[in-house]
């Protein structure tokens, strides 16, 4: 699903990624760890093309991401973040729907999928709530529903439990795991060691000196 070879990225003088290679297979669950500042978020940003310029090769489903329009990448990749990144002036349902609007999905399909996904993540009845009316865990559920709207083959998650308390964080990881099993999507998850017990089958990797190391 993802094949990265010879990936190099600098911020000015600072070398962040150094000849990095990585493979993510279909339906695979990979957990990425590494020191703060080691380049984990940078790698994810490169994958969903928030950072457009880099040296090396990134293939998504066999196609070079440099030649893929952004809406095509959005269909293949779902993304969730520590900070949820919901739009404050939109309801839960509208936030989820947005993911389909940017990829050109028909309105009817957006509406039915968004409703079903909010149901699936346990937010029935809260479709019309605004982000400030939801708890952190509920906001992250909206963000998960939004990430899944396009039925991506890959879900990227950058410390998705970083703003949640321990119990809510564990619930969130188990929800992600269940959704991964249900959909068969691959998942690349940046998260901390103390939550890993709930995902014993995951492949563990870490970012060291700008490269990916298997653990
Ligand atoms: N836009 C930017 N401009 C300059 N330097 C940056 C920029 N973004 C990140 N960096 C630097 O690149 C390095 C890697 O940052 P990155 O955010 O990828 O780390 P991380 O592994 O995700 O860390 P954390 O665990 O704290 O989230 C850091 O040294 C950071 O200061
Ligand atoms: Mg980070």
Automatic annotation (TrEMBL):
Cross-referenced InterPro entries: AAA+_ATPase, ABC_SmlMolc_Importer, ABC_transporter-like_ATP-bd, ABC_transporter-like_CS, MacB-like_ATP-bd, P-loop_NTPase
Keywords: ATP-binding, Nucleotide-binding, Transport
Entry's Gene Ontology molecular function annotations: ATP binding; ATP hydrolysis activity
A Pfam family this chain is assigned to: ABC_tran
CDD domains: ABC_MJ0796_LolCDE_FtsE
Domain of life of the organism encoding this protein: Bacteria
Residue span, ABC transporter domain: 2-215
Protein's name according to its UniProt entry: ABC transporter ATP-binding protein
Organism name: Cohnella faecalis
Taxonomic lineage: Bacteria, Bacillati, Bacillota, Bacilli, Bacillales
């Amino acid at each position: 699903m993802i094949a990265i070879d010879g990936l190099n990225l600098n911020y000015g003088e600072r070398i962040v990624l150094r000849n990095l290679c990585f493979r993510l297979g279909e339906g695979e669950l990979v957990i990425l760890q590494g020191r703060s500042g080691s380049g984990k978020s940078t790698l994810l940003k490169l994958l969903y093309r928030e950072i457009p310029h880099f040296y090396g090769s990134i293939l998504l489903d066999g196609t070079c991401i440099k030649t893929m329009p952004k809406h095509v990448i959005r269909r293949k990749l779902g993304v969730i973040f520590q900070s949820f990144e919901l739009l404050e002036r939109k309801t839960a349902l509208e936030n989820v729907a947005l993911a389909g609007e940017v990829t050109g999905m028909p309105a009817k399909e957006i509406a039915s999928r968004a409703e079903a996904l909010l149901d699936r993540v346990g937010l029935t009845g809260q479709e019309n709530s605004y982000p400030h009316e939801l708890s952190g865990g509920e906001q992250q559920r909206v963000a998960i529903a939004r990430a899944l709207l396009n039925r991506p083959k890959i879900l990227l998650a950058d410390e998705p439990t970083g703003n949640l308390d321990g119990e809510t964080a564990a619930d969130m990881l188990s929800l992600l795991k269940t959704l991964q099993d249900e959909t068969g999507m691959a998942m690349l998850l940046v998260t901390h060691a103390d939550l890993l017990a709930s995902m014993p089958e995951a492949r563990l990797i870490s970012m060291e000196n700008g490269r990916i190391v298997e653990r």
